[in-house]
Amino acid sequence: MKKTLIIYASMSGNTEDIAKLIGKRLQEDEMEVTYEEMDACDSESIKEYDYILAGSYTWGDGDLPYEAEDFYEELADADLTGKNIGCFGSGDHTYPKFCEAVDLLHGRFTETGADVFADLLKIEGSPESEEDISECIQFAEAFSEWCSKSGKVTSNVS
Prior knowledge:
five-stranded parallel β-sheet
């Protein structure tokens, strides 16, 4: 089983709900899923996982919430080469930068040398509608498929 970490910052529970939907779907693909709040994570401890998903809500006009700031800063010096990482989050369209925290995390993980899943999951508020739930499940399925393809070893025999 591939060890998968889902870390998140969630004030109202919306991002946590998204994390649980993603994790439940990944478990169907025989991934061993661990959940952890972002403010309890550090860039070294996440290295023990094969796959990592990071989610956050966006605070104010496009900022990371305080629960994510330390982790985000630590990532500036991290080397996550070879790790498969995906990003997701919740937001509110009434603010000018919808789900900007997802974009910030995606950019920072890219800087670490990790293989970062190009698709980003951004959900308005809580994933309550059938459409939002379906979007979370589809994101998890696509991430799982991407991980299985990127994990294949190719031979360079000459």
